[in-house]
Design a protein that fits this description.
single chain; about 130 residues; mainly alpha; two-stranded antiparallel ribbon; elongated
Length: about 130
């Protein structure tokens, strides 16, 4: 038995483990999933009226996200979504943002890039990104 005891001491584990001495580990309760808050202009709805988009562009929240003056935000939002119908869906906004990012990649001058960057900033704030 002396050799077995020495082996246990060196390896740090027992060769035979009895189930009676082990206590079963209790599972911790699963954390509740966090509800995502929709910070976009849509506010969780499928569609958005064009008039409410202009009101959202005038809001304080839009200023905090973009740091652009109100007149510029309203002008850019009308330029991006003004030709749409009475209702806007989120897919239309995402498509517009993707088109702006593609347009920025092919912009020739720094002035064009800056203008497009402002438009992208407003579009992202409208989409809540």
């Amino acid at each position: 038995m002396a050799i077995d005891d020495k082996k246990e001491q060196l390896s740090g584990s027992k060769t035979s483990i009895s189930r009676e001495t082990e206590t079963p580990k209790e599972k911790a309760p699963a954390p509740e999933p966090k509800k995502e808050i929709d910070t976009s202009a849509w506010g969780g709805n499928k569609y958005l009226k064009r008039e409410s988009l202009g009101g959202w562009a005038r809001s304080d929240e839009a200023w905090r996200k973009t740091n652009l003056p109100e007149s510029e935000r309203v002008e850019i939002s009308n330029e991006l979504f003004g030709k749409s119908g009475d209702y806007l869906d989120k897919k239309k906004g995402e498509k517009t943002l993707k088109g702006l990012e593609k347009e920025r990649a092919y912009a020739n001058t720094d002035l064009d890039r800056k203008r497009i960057d402002k438009e992208i900033k407003v579009a992202k704030s409208i989409l809540g990104k």
